[in-house]
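Dear H.,

Thanks for agreeing to be a second pair of eyes. The structure we're designing against is below in token form, covering all 114 positions.
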């Protein structure tokens, strides 16, 4: 998968989640993001930077995340409690989930333009 493709798929996933604020990443249909359920983190950007060891271990190279470069989450999506991803995960209202999902989707679009 190329960086451009991972950003396209990631944007599709988050746009679906914008419209389905009561759902999670594992609920995204296969026709929206093919292969999502087979991805270790249920995220095309995480899958793009995943490294697999010869013994089968999996390490996500968060420092190489295409969205990190855009300042979306300078310390990583799960390392910063104020990242849009963690705010989405912990949101108490559908409105907040929609807002944070849209922020991630918009960043995917901006990043693809580069």
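And this is the sequence the design step returned. I haven't edited it by hand at all.
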């Amino acid at each position: 998968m190329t960086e451009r493709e991972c950003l396209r798929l990631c944007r599709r996933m988050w746009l679906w989640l914008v419209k389905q604020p009561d759902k999670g990443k594992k609920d995204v249909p296969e026709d929206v993001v093919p292969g999502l359920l087979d991805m270790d983190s249920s995220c095309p950007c995480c899958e793009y930077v995943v490294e697999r060891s010869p013994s089968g271990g999996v390490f996500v190279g968060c420092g190489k995340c295409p969205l990190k470069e855009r300042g979306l989450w300078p310390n990583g999506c799960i390392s910063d409690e104020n990242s849009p991803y963690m705010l989405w995960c912990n949101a108490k209202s559908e409105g907040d989930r929609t807002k944070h999902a849209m922020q991630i989707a918009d960043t995917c679009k901006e990043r693809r333009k580069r």
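Two observations from my side: The two ends are 17 Å apart (CA to CA). The chain has a mean pLDDT of 87.

Warmly,
E.
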